[in-house]
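note to self — DONT lose this again. spent like an hour looking for the file last time. sequence + predicted structure for the chain T wanted, 220 res
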Amino acid sequence: MQTSDHVEQALPRYYAQRAAEYERVFDKLHRQADIATLKAWLRGQFAGRHVLEVATGTGFWLPEATAEAVSWLGTDLNAEVLAIARLKPLDFTRVGFELANAYALGDTLRGRRFDAAFAGLWFSHVPMSRREDWLRGLHAQLSRGARVVLIDNRYVDGDSTPVTRFDAEGNGFQRRRLLDGSEHEVLKNYPTADEFAALLGGRPFEFRELDHFWTLVYEV
């Protein structure tokens, strides 16, 4: 059985190896309506705010998400994916990037505070036993009243990569193959509104489901 440490070390290695082909997942024709809806919606979510992004990856959402932000700091553990993010058409007077561990943001940020946070397609990779700790660590970097926006995948039969097993705490795992032929087991969960209600401890939130994605918005 894989340990939590092994799972969390394997994920960044997988995404570093996948960096050059990552955005192919957004090319699926049947997802284009949802993606267009999300891009238009993101433009206004961070207007006038100083934003911390966790697990930026290749920066697929950045051109729209950063459009009206005052400042934006994209963080990721992998230099490989941030190199691709830096190629996006962005206003680099407002947008910057730093290497950071999503589970130890304070080690990199060292007291800097933000009034918004964003994570796209990241929360589904957080082990269930670490969700509360990760949210607590994220909130510690935010000022009171900060807006938190999460986007992630819904599970859709016949479209999503099948979940091949569950571990003892209920985490799902998928088998994925990259273009180089390598195979990887990747932790992938599909949280529900009820799970977020429990995690957020009575804090008001908005949870919306599209055909292939979900969004979560709340304030700290």
